[in-house]
Structure to design on (589 residues):
């Protein structure tokens, strides 16, 4: 392309007056590798001088802090090896961490949480509340293994902290819906009537029919859930998420995180293939097909469409299901939101959210005090008042 | 621009090269708004403007050890910003073309640009620190975690200023080598450092 043409297109682009045909030409120009230098030179000339007298744009200030923090090494959380599930080893590590802190920081003030708080808050555990079609509610963590209910000929069987549907009783009635929900501090696993396995994180829910029939299998989730969908190409599996997104599945493993207080609805694919569609006021501003390892993010504010992250950190995404807190590259605020859900506490910031990063991971069966000891080692001060954790 | 101001800006660059955060903040306060206006003119979009500007300042900070060679920050920052804007437009255009092939509706809403995030850089820093020699790691941590100046680190460890400066520069080089390509200052911009107008 001739330089005069590049010059012309660049000028029209800056003036926002490209015709449709010129728009296509300009897109091709942008992608042509041998015109990159020419483009730089032309825009150098056309873009105008810097306006050094412009009024300061305050909205830019957060960029400065992010740039300065970008190359700061993360603070270390105490690292627990993955297999240390045994309570004994965890207690040992917590004690060791406490002793380490005591020995190395004797002269500093000890963290208020340890000194002032003899009480402790237990970690979350298996458990959920099942709402049956007739509105009755069954607390699943207080029941023993066995058949716990019958609806329309389908038996509900509880076994070792998970619920399964046995449609043995030849159903012929109408389709009824059940809702499984976990409060804060509980997670649960349910096997749906089609054999699909669903792991529910704390403060989450799934609504599903007790028998799938017709053209598709449709469920609705809130919060966070991991799915291993039973293969059935004839009946696509659809997950509706907060009425803001829909995931269409043919048989696959994926995780969806749609907590209302997280910024995005994140769908991460581990195996197979899913199509993620965003919804905004009934409109569908976009949809994408994910490959394994990719994550689709939909802004809760909607309108912005779908962002696809390549090579999502699946260890991090799946940590909750594997009984682990994962800290690498997770913001302090997000870690605290996870703690709120798992320990059923409320986190309050006295002086804003500390802008620090952690690394390492921790098993989820540690009591809150165990966690606070480790947090204290990183130099953060806090106190516990009832179920309120105050970050100082 | 008066020669006095130019002299001050040159000093600012030297201080940033030494890892001085307040000098970087001063440069940011001076140029972020004018560069943002330029980026908006080139991108026609507020979120895109923010994203590109974030990248510009992160890249400058991660390449701070090279700022000693820059004479005038203004024209240089303007060039980098234009370059990053063009990169952004190119990526958006490529992505939209691909989406078009898939018959996607309303492709402009989708932007899978996944620009480099602070978290990714922090992860690269972590991995880079793992492969550094213990002394280089110590020097880097004193500089970034404790915020010590080159001179203070040199005095603390009984090393020469030049040695510490080189060690930090080498540490940054290692970190940059762990970053995805999209987070690096491209060769053409490095080139601009030396052949400025």
């Amino acid at each position: 392309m001739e330089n005069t043409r590049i010059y012309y297109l660049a000028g029209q682009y800056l003036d926002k007056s490209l015709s449709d045909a010129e728009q296509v030409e300009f897109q091709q120009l942008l992608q042509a590798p041998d015109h990159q230098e020419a483009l730089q030179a032309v825009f150098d000339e056309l873009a105008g001088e810097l306006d050094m007298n412009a009024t300061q744009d305050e909205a830019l200030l957060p960029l400065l802090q992010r740039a300065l923090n970008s190359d700061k090494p993360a603070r270390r959380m105490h690292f627990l090896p993955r297999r240390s599930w045994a309570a004994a080893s965890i207690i040992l590590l917590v004690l060791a961490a406490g002793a380490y802190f005591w020995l190395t920081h004797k002269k500093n003030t000890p963290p208020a949480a340890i000194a002032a708080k003899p009480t402790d808050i237990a970690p979350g555990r298996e458990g959920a509340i099942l709402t049956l079609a007739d509105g009755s509610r069954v607390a699943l963590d207080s029941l023993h293994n066995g058949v716990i209910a019958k609806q329309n000929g389908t038996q509900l069987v509880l076994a070792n902290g998970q619920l399964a549907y046995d449609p043995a009783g030849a159903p012929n009635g109408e389709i009824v819906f059940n809702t499984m929900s976990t409060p804060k501090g509980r997670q649960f696993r349910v096997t749906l009537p089609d054999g699909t396995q669903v792991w529910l994180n704390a403060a989450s829910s799934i609504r599903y029919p007790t028998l799938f029939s017709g053209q598709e299998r449709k469920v609705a989730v809130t919060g966070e859930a991991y799915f291993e969908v039973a293969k059935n190409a004839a009946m696509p599996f659809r997950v509706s998420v907060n009425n803001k997104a829909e995931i269409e599945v043919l048989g696959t493993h994926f995780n969806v995180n749609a907590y209302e207080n997280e910024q995005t609805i994140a769908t991460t694919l581990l195996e197979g293939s899913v199509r993620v569609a965003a919804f905004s006021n009934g409109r569908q501003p976009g949809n994408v097909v994910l490959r394994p390892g990719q994550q689709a993010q939909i802004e809760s504010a909607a309108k912005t469409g779908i962002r696809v992250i390549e090579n999502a950190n699946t260890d991090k995404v799946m940590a909750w299901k594997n009984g682990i807190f994962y800290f690498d590259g997770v913001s302090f605020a997000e870690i605290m939101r996870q703690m709120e859900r798992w320990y059923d506490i409320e986190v309050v910031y006295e002086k804003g959210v500390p802008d620090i990063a952690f690394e390492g991971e921790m098993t989820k069966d540690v009591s809150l005090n165990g966690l606070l000891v480790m947090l204290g080692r990183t130099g953060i001060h806090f106190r516990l008042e009832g179920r309120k954790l105050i970050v100082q | 621009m008066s020669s006095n101001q130019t002299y001050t800006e040159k000093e600012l660059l030297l201080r940033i090269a030494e890892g001085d955060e307040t000098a970087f903040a001063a440069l940011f306060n001076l140029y972020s708004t004018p560069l943002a206006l330029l980026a908006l003119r080139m991108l026609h979009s507020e979120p895109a403007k923010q994203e590109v500007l974030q990248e510009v300042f992160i890249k400058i900070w991660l390449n701070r050890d090279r700022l000693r060679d820059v004479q005038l920050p203004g024209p240089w920052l303007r060039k980098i910003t234009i370059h990053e804007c063009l990169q952004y437009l190119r990526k958006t255009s490529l992505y939209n073309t691909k989406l078009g092939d898939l018959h996607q509706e309303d492709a402009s809403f989708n932007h899978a640009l996944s620009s480099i995030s602070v978290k990714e850089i922090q992860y690269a820093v972590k991995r880079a620190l793992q492969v550094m020699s213990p002394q280089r790691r110590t020097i880097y941590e004193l500089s970034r975690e404790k915020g010590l100046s080159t001179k203070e680190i040199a005095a603390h460890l009984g090393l020469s200023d030049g040695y510490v400066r080189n060690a930090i520069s080498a540490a940054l080089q290692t970190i940059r080598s762990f970053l995805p390509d999209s987070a690096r200052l491209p060769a053409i911009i490095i080139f601009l450092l030396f052949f400025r107008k």
Notes: Chain B is about 75% helix and 0% strand.
